[in-house]
């Protein structure tokens, strides 16, 4: 039980990578809080996770974020692990076709939202010498021909650099901050791009390992960073992408 006695918060925890991560953290001894905007889906998801609570919140609203952190502290008295996983994916468009509202929404959720949760969590993580794991994307590492999701790529690239900034800023508090960059993972977010066998074959072939990823494969990487196995690791950027980013 690598996380026995630890309290973890997973944002975007109602499905996909977030739900798989919450399950893995719980199975390894952590008490887990999951949060997401969709209350109904969140309450259904928490039933799948032992030792877990669900707190509905909109990552774009500061008061909602503060409420999540406050409820965790009220119930458990501390916070050891923050997994900044929540994110949205925009409609595929070239830059000149994106309106400002679309652009701002993606950055508000994928980047400023991570700032909000980290800001509120830091005072509590300072007391526990906690761990922050940011979920970015290999789209934040390099550009892909025809990807055309500029706001998404920009937000994920920024999160990679913020990981390094936060790792340095809070190293004196022994807070470790690391980042995982998945490739295409089989989740609700990617289903629109995998509608046909031809789509699936193409996407599998985009990854040198020969297939897309599964949510629990990212969750296991989160477990490593959250545990004492990574006690001397901070500011690390780990690609979990079947080799897609090294092509």
Automatic annotation (TrEMBL):
It comes from Candidatus Nitrosopumilus sediminis. Gene3D superfamilies: NAD(P)-binding Rossmann-like Domain. InterPro entries: NAD(P)-bd_dom_sf (IPR036291), Sc_DH/Rdtase_CS (IPR020904), SDR_fam (IPR002347). Pfam families: adh_short_C2. Belongs to the short-chain dehydrogenases/reductases (SDR) family. It comes from the Archaea. This is Short-chain dehydrogenase/reductase SDR.
């Amino acid at each position: 039980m690598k996380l026995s006695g630890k309290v973890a918060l997973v944002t975007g925890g109602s499905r996909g990578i977030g739900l798989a991560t919450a399950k893995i953290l719980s199975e390894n001894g952590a008490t887990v809080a999951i949060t997401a905007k969709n209350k109904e889906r969140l309450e259904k998801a928490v039933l799948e996770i032992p030792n877990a609570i669900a707190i509905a919140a909109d990552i774009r609203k500061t008061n909602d974020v503060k409420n999540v952190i406050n409820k965790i502290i009220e119930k458990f008295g501390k916070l050891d692990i923050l997994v900044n996983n929540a994110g949205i994916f925009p409609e595929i468009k070239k830059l000149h076709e994106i309106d400002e509202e679309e652009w701002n929404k993606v950055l508000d959720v994928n980047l400023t939202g991570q700032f909000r949760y980290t800001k509120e969590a830091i005072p509590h993580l300072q007391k526990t010498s906690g761990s922050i794991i940011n979920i970015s994307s290999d789209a934040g590492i390099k550009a892909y021909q025809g990807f055309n999701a500029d706001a998404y790529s920009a937000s994920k690239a920024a999160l990679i650099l913020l990981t390094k900034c936060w790792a340095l800023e809070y190293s004196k508090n022994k807070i470790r901050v690391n980042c995982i960059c998945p490739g295409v993972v089989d989740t609700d977010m990617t289903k629109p791009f995998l509608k046909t066998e031809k789509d699936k074959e193409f996407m599998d072939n985009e990854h040198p390992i020969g297939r897309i990823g599964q949510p629990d494969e990212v969750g296991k990487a989160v477990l490593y960073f959250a545990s004492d196995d990574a006690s001397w690791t901070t500011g690390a950027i780990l690609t979990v992408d079947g080799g897609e980013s090294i092509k």
